[in-house]
């Protein structure tokens, strides 16, 4: 029975049990209020200041709606009361291991391992914080550890507990799509009818595209619309060039702090911090890091000096070391800084992962009565969205605005160094395919 109602700007009223509120009220969970969902995106979209805290509450509410849909389609016994209790707690804590600017530091520049693949961090938050005794008292600590670490409760067992919260088309996705669009002001929506398509089949979450023995084209259209919405957010928000520049500045500032003698910062130090706390610590770091933080806070973003994209690069393999290997990235940054006669702090190489697949397109679908759930591997619309998502990859070299007079030189040197022409356009210049 619900004991507390929270008004959410995206979903309206969300109800939580006394047990769930006990988790929400821990200092560890409340820290999520201090971590923005979209990192540096608020420098491009000023309204994008929503946090991991409200996203976690929203994901819990969405998980309940998915469970309600499954029970309508498959019977109440498919997801038991104990299953629902565990799934809702999993939704609440699925982002508990996030550090400040987590995706920036873990995915974009690989300063630290990903939060959801870092066993030590997961165990720390669930067993060594003030969240631990609450989960232990509720009898959920071991099950949540297994879900966060291994995605299933037992070897070879059902995966729907994980799938509902953090699978492909899941509570995490459905909440952040709506929430990110709402707070960035993008006019994108999906139809709530999607909640009527969820089923559990062979122990896994699936999307039912069969009704009265016939394929449901309207269901497929809604899935395509959902994934198109995911693409639009990627194109306009997650990979916005100005947001990328701000993210690159933060990542380099942290790397400079970590490399400083007698560094006060390490991964563990970030477990207690929010965004502002990390910025304050970096502001007390070495002079180059302080410069980057000052520029970030003043929105004096580094300028694009060089860019290549999928438009001109068939394979991104040659750039992979600049994403995966910090030493190689710093070697190139030092080389460019020497040739441009600028400080090391003033050049940033930004190379995202080439693996920018639309993983949500790998959802399982029930396509025929009695048939096993499977992926839609040959659908033209999904294939097109996958290709467009991969096409968002861009490699940048950013330069301190104090040296804007050297942008042309930087672009020329980078083109020579990387063997690819510069795609940063001069004022008034059109892209090659528009000339």
From TrEMBL:
One of its GO terms (biological process) is dGTP catabolic process. InterPro entries: dGTPase-like, HD/PDEase_dom, HD_assoc_2, HD_domain. GO terms for molecular function: dGTPase activity. It comes from the Bacteria. Residues 48-186 form the HD/PDEase domain. This is HD domain-containing protein. It comes from candidate division WOR-3 bacterium.
């Amino acid at each position: 029975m619900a004991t507390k109602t929270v008004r959410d700007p995206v979903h309206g009223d969300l109800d939580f049990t006394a047990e769930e509120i006990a988790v929400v009220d821990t200092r560890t969970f409340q820290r999520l209020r201090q971590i923005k969902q979209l990192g540096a995106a608020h420098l491009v979209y000023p309204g994008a200041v929503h946090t991991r805290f409200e996203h976690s509450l929203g994901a819990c509410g969405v998980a309940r709606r998915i469970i309600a849909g499954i029970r309508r389609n498959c019977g109440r016994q498919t997801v038991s009361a104990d299953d629902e209790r565990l799934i809702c707690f999993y939704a609440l804590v699925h982002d508990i291991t996030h550090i400040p600017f987590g995706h920036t530091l873990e995915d974009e520049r690989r300063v630290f391992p990903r939060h959801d693949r870092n066993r030590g961090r997961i165990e720390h938050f669930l067993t060594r914080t003030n969240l631990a005794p609450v989960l232990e008292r509720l009898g959920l600590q071991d099950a949540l550890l297994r879900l966060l670490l291994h995605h299933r409760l037992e070897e070879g067992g059902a995966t729907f507990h994980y799938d509902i919260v953090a699978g492909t088309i899941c509570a995490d996705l459905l909440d952040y799509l709506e929430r990110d669009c709402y707070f960035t002001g993008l006019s994108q929506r999906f139809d709530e009818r999607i909640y009527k398509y969820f089923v559990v089949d062979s122990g896994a979450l699936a999307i039912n595209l069969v009704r009265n023995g016939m394929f449901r084209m309207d269901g497929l259209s809604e899935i395509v619309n959902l994934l198109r919405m995911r693409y639009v957010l990627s194109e306009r928000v997650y990979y916005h060039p100005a947001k990328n520049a701000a993210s690159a500045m933060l990542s380099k500032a942290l790397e400079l702090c970590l490399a400083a003698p007698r560094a006060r910062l390490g991964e563990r130090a970030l477990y207690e911090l929010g965004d502002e706390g990390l910025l304050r610590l970096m502001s007390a770091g070495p002079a180059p890091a302080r410069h980057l933080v000052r520029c970030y806070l003043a929105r004096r973003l580094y300028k694009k000096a060089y860019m290549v994209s999928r438009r001109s690069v068939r394979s991104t393999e040659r750039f992979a070391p600049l994403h995966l290997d910090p030493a190689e990235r710093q070697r190139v940054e030092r080389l460019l800084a020497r040739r441009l006669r600028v400080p090391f702090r003033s050049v940033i190489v930004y190379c995202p992962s080439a693996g920018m697949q639309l993983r949500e397109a790998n959802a399982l679908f029930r396509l025929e009565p009695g048939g096993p759930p499977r992926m839609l591997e040959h659908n033209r619309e999904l294939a097109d969205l996958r290709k467009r998502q991969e096409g968002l990859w861009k490699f940048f070299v950013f330069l301190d605005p104090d040296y804007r007079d050297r942008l042309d030189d930087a672009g020329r040197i980078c083109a020579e160094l990387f063997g690819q022409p510069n795609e940063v356009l001069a004022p008034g210049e059109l892209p090659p395919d528009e000339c």
